[in-house]
C-alpha cells in the first residue's frame, strides 16, 4: 500500500509539473467528441477522449500488474 501511495503521489506531482505542456494537447477536442451547441443549450460528451484515456490506463495497469 505504501508503494502504491508513493507512486500515485509521484504521478500527480509529474502531472502537475507537466500541466502547462499537457494543456496544449488536443485532449478534449478530438474528432469523435460530441459537441452540440444551440441557442440556450450546449452539450459536450468526450467520447473519443474517454476511449483513449481508457485504453491508455488499461495498458498501463496491464503492464504494471504483469511484473
Quick recap:
With 67 residues, the protein is mostly helical.
Could you characterize the architecture of this molecule?
By secondary structure, the chain is mostly helical. The chain has one domain. It is built from two helices and two strands, in the order H-E-E-H. It has helices at residues 2-22, 47-66; strands spanning 34-37, 42-45. Strands 1-2 form a two-stranded antiparallel ribbon. The model has no long low-confidence stretch (mean pLDDT 86).
Which features characterize this protein?
mainly alpha, single chain
Order of helices and strands: HEEH
Rg, Cα atoms, Å: 16 Å
The shape, in one word, is: elongated
Proportion in helices: 55-70%
Q: Provide the spatial order of strands within the biggest beta sheet.
A: 1-2
The percent range for strand residues is: 5-15%
Alpha plus pi helix count: 2
Topology, element by element:
Blueprint: H1 2-22, E1 34-37, E2 42-45, H2 47-66
Antiparallel strand pairs: 1-2
Amino acid at each position: 500500500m505504501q508503494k502504491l501511495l508513493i507512486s500515485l503521489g509521484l504521478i500527480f506531482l509529474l502531472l502537475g509539473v507537466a500541466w502547462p505542456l499537457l494543456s496544449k494537447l488536443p485532449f478534449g477536442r478530438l474528432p469523435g467528441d460530441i459537441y452540440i451547441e444551440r441557442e440556450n443549450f450546449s452539450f459536450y460528451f468526450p467520447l473519443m477522449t474517454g476511449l483513449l484515456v481508457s485504453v491508455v490506463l488499461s495498458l498501463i495497469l496491464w503492464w504494471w500488474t504483469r511484473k
